[in-house]
Amino acid sequence: MCLQSIKETLTISSSRFTLLTKSKNYPQIKETLAQPPFSTLRKDILTVINDEIDAKRFEDLNQRCDRVKASLEQFDKLINGGLRNSPPEQIQLEDSIATFITELRGFIEVVEKTKNNSVVESVFSGSYTDPINHPGGTRMISVDSDGVVSVDGGGGRGEPLNFSLPGRVVGGKLYVDFRPKGGPTGPNGGFEGDFDLAKGGIRWTGGGEQELNFWPKIYQ
After folding, report:
1. Looking at the predicted structure, is the pLDDT value of residue 120 above 50?
2. What mean pLDDT is reported for the chain?
3. Got the DSSP string for 33-74?
4. CA 158, 204, 214 angle in degrees (round to 5)?
């Protein structure tokens, strides 16, 4: 639904704004910007980004999101100038909306390429440690194209030498069933965690707000 709203925004931009900018009907343009799907565009884009599990495209979409936001803000700034009786040049309006359309179309193309890509390099994939609960051990997380997860590890203090845990990635969240090694699970079939880009690892929350454990990622 969110991607459909983003596509709707692109369609409206390509048709209605082309006509409105030529007539310089600033009040109607401003009214259009204040209503869905434009008023919810930022939220819709962020929802799509959070649903991605491909690490490279996750970063790409974040950057494209910023460019879409900046281009829309620039267009809005020109419209505000028109409402204050400081009308921009027609070429400025046309160039500004063309930039926004280009950036939004680029975002959509990357998302659709991700959806059609059979090999997913997940942001969760890789090696980790568990210094809080089991120092000295390692964990290797693998994610296939369907979001099915395998966690293989062991060797840490207070845990088996080797273990393998099932899991899955759904909606940008990682769910792992720790019961095979005596750990917890959750109502969604696994203990919940998410990837913290700023800290560079997995925050285990169990679905709550509080961080219960943290696995730093081992970067080569």
Report:
1. no
2. 85
3. HTSTTTTTHHHHHHHHHHH--BHHHHHHHHHHHHHHHHHHHH
4. 65
pLDDT for position 56: 62
pLDDT at 115: 58
Burial label, 84 (beta-carbon count in 10 A; 0-12, 13-18, 19+): exposed
Q: Is beta strand 163-170 parallel, antiparallel or unpaired with respect to 173-176?
A: antiparallel
Summarised one tens digit per residue, pLDDT across range 9-50 is 998 888 888 888 888 889 999 999 999 889 999 888 888 887
**Tokens at residue 141, please?**
């997380």
Q: Are 145 and 120 in contact (CB under 8 A)?
A: yes
| pLDDT value at 134 more than 80 | yes
- Token digits of residue 21: 């900018």
Q: Is 26 exposed, middle or buried (0-12, 13-18, 19+ CB in 10 A)?
A: buried
Cα gap 152→154, rounded to integer Å: 7
Distance CA 6, CA 42 (A): 9
Distance CA 136, CA 155 (A): 7
